[in-house]
């Protein structure tokens, strides 16, 4: 074999291994839903879906989502601590602290590298300090409204708790908050965030590359399956923009190959739709 031929073969081997590592970098997260609390009683669907039926009900769970892969353990939302007064109206049962729930997958709080906050309602942000190492990702416009205009005359602070506002400001002061500038942003390789539902001032949902199927963690950009199945917006107070909310669901259906992989924020059906890994933990992908 002449020397040129050797170089060609060597080059080819280097090229192949570089290609292989680039490929494995860009894909393949596992996605889990972890339940940490439930509401004691069923709710009329009309409480959650605009013009939804009053005579049919939905079971409400509280959950966080884990995206695992590429050396990262990423949470979507952080849940809440059970001493928060806002939880009272939901008659919470079966509460487990979100960090304890993660032990079911062998994860310690310090293993969480990132938290993507879909929006800053108490039931999604209040558990943030359980995960002190995590870099937090939040929509910029949602952040500024949350810490500012929401508390001014004419602002809307429903679902916001002051202790959570202070906690988020501290996370920012610690250099561990990244503000995301709007729609369709790839914030981590293989993970994109989108806006448009306006559940809060500018809430976001998450699209995850899992290899063969993409998964959307909608969080409260879809409260319950009934909204997605009937293309009806969240009930009163569930969005600043009912048309935007429906358009966002329509768009989500174009972003995944199978609508099964669009995951709402509070519907207990999630935990019977996907394979159960441990009690209250399902593997979505
Ligand atoms: Zn919620």
Could you characterize what this model shows?
By secondary structure, this protein is of the alpha+beta class. Helix content is 27%, strand content 25%. It has 8 helices and 16 strands. It has helices at 3-25, 98-102, 122-125, 140-147, 162-173, 225-230, 242-255, 270-273, and strands at residues 30-39, 43-44, 57-58, 61-69, 72-76, 92-93, 114-116, 135-139, 177-180, 185-188, 191-194, 205-209, 214-219, 262-264, 276-278, 281-283. The strands form 3 sheets. Strands 1, 4, 5, 6, 7, 8, 9, 15 and 16 form a 9-stranded mixed β-sheet that branches. Strands 10-11-12-13-14 form a 5-stranded mixed β-sheet, with helices on one face. The longest helix is centred in the N-terminal third of the chain and has 23 residues, at 3-25. The termini are far apart. The model is unreliable at 19-25 (pLDDT under 50). Zinc ion binds next to α3.
């Amino acid at each position: 074999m002449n020397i040129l031929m050797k170089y060609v073969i060597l080059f080819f081997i280097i090229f192949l291994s570089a290609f292989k590592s680039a490929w494995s970098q860009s894909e393949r997260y596992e996605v889990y839903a972890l339940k940490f609390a439930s509401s004691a009683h069923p709710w009329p669907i009309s409480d959650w879906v605009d013009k939804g039926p009053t005579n049919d009900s939905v079971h409400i769970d509280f959950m966080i989502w884990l995206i695992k892969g590429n050396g990262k353990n990423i949470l979507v939302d952080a849940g809440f601590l059970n001493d928060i007064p806002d939880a009272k109206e939901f008659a919470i049962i079966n509460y487990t602290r979100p960090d304890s729930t993660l032990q079911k997958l062998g994860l310690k709080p310090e293993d969480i590298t990132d938290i993507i906050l879909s929006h800053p309602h108490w039931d999604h942000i209040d558990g943030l300090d359980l995960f002190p190492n995590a870099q937090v990702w939040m929509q910029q416009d949602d952040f500024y409204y949350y810490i500012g205009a929401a508390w001014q005359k004419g602002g809307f602070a429903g679902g916001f708790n002051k202790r959570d506002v202070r906690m988020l400001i501290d996370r920012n002061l610690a250099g561990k908050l990244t503000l995301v500038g709007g729609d369709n942003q790839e914030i981590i390789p293989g993970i994109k965030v989108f806006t448009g539902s306006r559940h809060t001032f500018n809430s976001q949902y998450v699209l995850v590359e899992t290899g063969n199927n993409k998964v959307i963690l909608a969080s409260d950009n879809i409260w319950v399956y009934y909204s997605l199945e009937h293309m009806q917006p969240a009930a009163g107070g569930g969005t600043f923009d009912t048309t935007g909310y429906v358009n966002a669901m329509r768009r989500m259906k174009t972003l995944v190959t199978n609508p099964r992989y669009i995951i709402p924020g509070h519907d207990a059906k999630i935990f019977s739709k996907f394979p159960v890994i441990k009690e209250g933990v399902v593997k979505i992908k």
